[in-house]
Amino acid sequence: MRYRIAVIGAGQITEGHLMAMNELQDRLKPVAIADIRIDRAEQLSETYGMIAYEDYREMVLREKPDIVVITLPHHLHMEAAIFCAEAGCHILLEKPMALNAKQCDDIMDAVRHNNVRLMVGHTQHFLAENMAAKKFIKNEAKRLGQLVMMNDTRHKAYYNTDRPAWFLDKQRAGGGILFNLGSHSIDRLMWLGNARIVKVRASISHYGPAGDVEGSGVVFLENESGVPSTIVQSGYGGVPRNELELIFTEAMMKVIPGKGVWLSRNGVYEQIPVPREDSPFVLQFRELLASIERECEPECSMDYSRDVIAVLEGIYRSHELKAEVNISTPMLSEELGHI
Q1: How far is residue 250's CA from residue 41's CA, in Å, rounded to a whole number?
Q2: How confident is the model at residue 335, as a pLDDT?
Q3: Does residue 338 form part of some domain?
Q4: SS3 per-residue string spanning 118-168
């Protein structure tokens, strides 16, 4: 079956999805794109042979796509996802899933009530280096020994002039570097650590030149297996860095997306082979299609994606309280819904 697909939002990430559709044109047919800036929608529609709309609701109701890709600012995720689910569309929703766990619950209710599938675009699962690390951890467990800690570091100039203004507005973005890039870090700690995060203790800073979101943070986390982790992120000036180090009882592993995977041997790191993979956008679509056709949850399921949001809420709450926050307590998730 070839699925008719529409896109909501014509921002920076949209073209990655459209290029992936072209690679999967035997399975996906892009039919329409909507953006409140109609000029952006028209530009992409001309390149990829689609109809441009200004109002995504009109587009969904008129075009009746099988799948909708939502690439909107974070505060619009819930409204758009619920609308598309109620229209009977399957959904690929850009991460993070929503602003808080309560909004995630509302999305999940709508998706399940309307018997459609929703996948959140946690691309960490589809990066070649992370996939190679995940496979090595599974297949070489005896060689690695027991996982004892993980350290995730991400430094990136967050206040660059080409970043859309909504990213620096907490009401629209949900938070700053930790909400946006930190969701990637939480995702890969949960995925490669194979366990939910249940405790966090965080300290964040607000020294950015614009907006009201945090520009850095240090987070201590513990998963349900008792394994501790750290997330260290800065959006101020400095040297870009994006790496995860996993420390086992018998070895250490370093993962740098786009560069490689290294394993310790005789006191030094040695690079290990990473198989070539299709683009994360292509792999995401394949996973979503498999979920639709097999009538099962995708790997980046709604429950999993809600867990990421719950951890993010816990990070901000921990900083506010200057105390450790227990993510696993259901009452806490309800309490955090207002943040």
Answers
A1: 53
A2: 36
A3: no
A4: EEEECHHHHCHHHHHHHHHHHHCHHHHCCEEEEEEEEECCCCCCCCCHHHH
Asked if 191 and 327 sit in the same domain, the reply is yes
Q: Are the C-beta atoms of 288 and 68 separated by less than 8 Å? A: no
Backbone φ, ψ for residue 192 (5° rounding): -75, -30
Provide the pLDDT for residue 291.
98
Residue 190: strand, helix, or coil? helix
Order of strands, edge to edge, in the sheet holding 325-326? 268-272, 260-265, 252-256, 241-248, 147-155, 228-234, 216-223, 197-205, 325-326
3-state SS assignment for residue 184: helix
Is residue 168 a contact partner of residue 235, using CB atoms and an 8 Å limit?
Answer: no
In the predicted model, residues of the chain with pLDDT beneath 70 are 328-339
- Helical ranges in 24-87 per DSSP H: 38-48, 56-63, 77-86
**38/80 same-domain check:** yes
Structure tokens of 132? 């190679």
Query: Are 8 and 29 in a shared domain?
Result: yes
**C-beta neighbour count of 324 within 10 angstroms:** 13
The continuous run of DSSP H or E covering 171 comes out as: helix 170-173
3-state helix, strand, coil in the chain (%, to 5): 40, 25, 30
State the CATH number of the domain containing residue 85.
3.40.50.720
Return the structure tokens found at 295.
């009538």
